[in-house]
UniProtKB/TrEMBL annotation, chain A:
Superkingdom of origin: Bacteria
Organism expressing this protein natively: Prosthecodimorpha hirschii
UniProt-recorded name of the protein: Iron ABC transporter permease
Chief localisation class: membrane
One GO biological process term: siderophore-iron import into cell
InterPro entries: ABC_BtuC-like (IPR037294), ABC_transptr_permease_BtuC (IPR000522)
GO molecular function, a single term: transmembrane transporter activity
Record has Nucleus as a keyword: no
Length: 340, 261
């Protein structure tokens, strides 16, 4: 039960409906509108090797332009939301997002270094991914050596400190960058965008994001106990040490890959878990799948707005912040009670 | 049976108690009494394997406790901590289902068997009607009963409770203690800490008195809990009211207030 009056099943259907609506909008909005059925026919034909019986331009839009972007938005939205849900449970804190341990700031530094070195899209993606993993590994190595009484708190603080050091590194690279060419590229990248999705290596995004998300989804039934204080969880028979590490590794894979592909997209991993909890209650078994659906639909809708609302692309990070802030304040104001 | 021999316990570099021996058998209710800061909670955590012993050994049915995996320990011993520290408003049923962790695979959803065990534990403690309510919205007494139900859902042979009636009102203290007594009657070994010698005397078979990490008395409650032993244990005056000196009805802390007539 949820304490919010909705049944868990209704919450699941609401999240699924949002995703379907987002898919309809994402294929339908653009210079060449494509119906969801039409798009599905093209995709099925591609997968089975048949013919879709649609105009070649439609096929190009679905397979080469809008499709990859939609796939990236759905994957990243779901992954960041699942990782945020897991982290909020693991760290028992409603203000936690999946980049808590430095994944975003590490990836950001990697990316600006890549832009500074003129590495190209794939090179920047690789540099960002490596930066995110390295940052969290450093935070974990330092934090777990310091933490005695409250290892989780020490880890959070270490993440904050290392994150601000990495932020200084990003600042330095922006300062050194060519102001006419590299600096705008860095700024645009740091605000987050899926505009380059069709040029990305989607396998390089899909494998770490898919693997990390799958691990978190599979472990979801253990997350209820993992959200208890360490001793209580161990007394219930949960091997908390290895499990915590597994959740951190999975969330870091997901976040680093997402940031590497689309830049820094804040707020999704912070706000979506709260909305999902509002819909289906705090049980992670129900919560994690709903957070995945909701996050996928939400980021896809936001990205559709980002590419279609104005004559130029609106950076995703700006939209997610503009939407995320009031939603989060509304949630904090006590509209729900899933945090005690 | 859970047995500790010549146990030294505490945190690394900060021993809390030494030379303690204790046994908990099935069907037996044991109360642990002692002043604040005397090491009761640390002892409980050491006994159930959450803290490594500094010296001496703890065995569970003959096996050293530190050789058991967390899930093996949790299948044998249920633990009810002093304060439930969860952050989320889980339903009572979901909270009790957490007691099934030691019976579940890493990726498993709660099975029909898990739900049956959780439901049985809820019914046993009379909480069936509260199953869907958030744990944050029920009374303190109901929450404590739910935590006992969670321990029962582990299907353990022993249950260890840390101050199960702390912060409960008078009526709930009685309810919770009656349930604890019933666990012993049902064949479980029960160990609980308490600040109330009357509670120990009324609901426990044996009492163990701990002061500054050392045992200062152990045995059947009627023999161990005396005015002299309690005054020595707490270093404070204790009065006996009702009955007679040989058969006390109740212990009262402190000295009587001056007559107000």
């Amino acid at each position: 039960m949820t304490g919010s009056g909705l049944s868990a099943r209704a919450g699941f259907w609401i999240a699924l409906l949002l995703l379907v609506a987002a898919l309809v909008a994402a294929f339908g909005i653009g210079r060449l509108p494509v119906g969801l059925g039409e798009a599905l026919r093209v995709i099925v034909a591609r997968l089975t090797g048949g013919t879709a019986d649609v105009a070649p331009t439609v096929e190009t839009v679905v397979l080469a332009i809008r499709g990859p972007r939609i796939l990236a938005a759905v994957l990243i939205g779901a992954a960041l939301s699942v990782a945020g849900t897991a982290f909020q449970g693991l760290f028992r804190n409603p203000l936690v997002s999946p980049d808590l341990l430095g994944a975003s700031s590490g990836a950001a530094l990697g990316a600006v270094v890549g832009i500074y070195a003129n590495l190209g899209v794939i090179g920047i993606q690789a540099a960002a991914f490596t930066g995110g993993l390295a940052a969290v590994a450093a935070v974990y190595a330092i934090g777990s050596r310091l933490g005695r009484h409250d290892p989780m708190l020490v880890l959070i603080l270490t993440g904050v400190v290392i994150g601000s050091l990495l932020g200084a590194g990003v600042g330095l690279m922006k300062y050194l960058a060519d102001p006419y060419d590299q600096l705008p590229a860095m700024t645009f990248w740091l605000l987050g965008s899926l505009a380059a999705a069709h040029r990305l290596d989607l396998a390089a995004l899909g494998i770490p994001v898919g693997a990390g998300t799958l691990a978190l989804v599979l472990l979801r039934h253990r997350m209820n106990v993992l959200s208890l204080p360490d001793e209580e969880a161990r007394a219930l028979g949960l091997p908390t040490g290895p499990l915590r590490l597994a959740v951190i590794v999975a969330a870091t894979l997901v976040t680093s890959a997402a940031v590497a592909a689309a830049g820094v997209i804040g707020w999704v991993g912070l706000v979506v878990p709260h909305v999902a909890r509002f819909l289906v209650g705090p049980d992670f078994g129900r919560l994690v799948p709903v957070a995945a659906l909701l996050g996928a639909g939400y980021l896809l809708l936001v990205d559709t707005v980002a590419r279609s609302a104005a004559s130029v692309e609106i950076p995703l990070g700006i939209l997610t912040a503009v939407i995320g802030t009031p939603v989060f304040i509304w949630l904090l104001a006590g509209a729900h009670r899933s945090w005690s | 049976m859970l047995a500790a021999e010549e146990l030294s316990f505490g945190y690394r570099g900060r021993p809390v108690g030494t030379g303690l021996s204790l046994a908990l058998r099935p069907g037996e209710v044991v109360a642990l009494l002692g002043p604040n800061g005397g090491g009761k909670t640390t002892l409980l955590k050491t006994l159930i394997g959450l803290l490594p012993p500094i010296a001496g050994g703890i065995t569970l049915d003959g096996t050293a406790i530190e050789r058991l995996a967390p899930r093996e320990r949790a299948r044998a011993i249920g633990y009810v901590p002093q304060a439930h520290g969860g952050s989320f408003a889980f339903s009572v049923l979901d909270a009790v289902l957490m007691g099934r962790t030691a019976h579940q695979g890493l990726f498993a959803a709660p099975s029909r068997r898990d739900r049956a065990a959780a439901g049985a534990a809820l019914d046993r403690l009379g909480l069936g009607a509260l199953a869907a309510r958030p744990v944050t919205e029920i009374s303190g007494g109901e929450r404590q009963l739910a935590m006992i139900a969670r321990a029962l859902a582990q299907e353990p042979r022993l249950v260890v409770l840390d101050e199960p009636t702390a912060s409960l009102d008078f009526g709930n203290q009685g309810r919770v203690m009656a349930e604890i007594r019933a666990l012993g009657a049902a064949g479980l070994g029960v160990l609980f800490t308490t600040h109330d010698p009357n509670q120990a005397r009324r609901f426990a078979d044996r009492a163990v008195l701990i002061r500054a990490g050392r045992e200062v008395g152990a045995g059947p409650v009627d023999r161990v809990l005396t005015r002299a032993s309690l005054e020595a244990l707490y270093g404070a005056p204790v009065e006996i009211v009702g009955g007679g000196a040989s058969e006390p009805t109740a212990f009262l802390p402190g000295t009587p207030a001056p007559s107000r007539s």
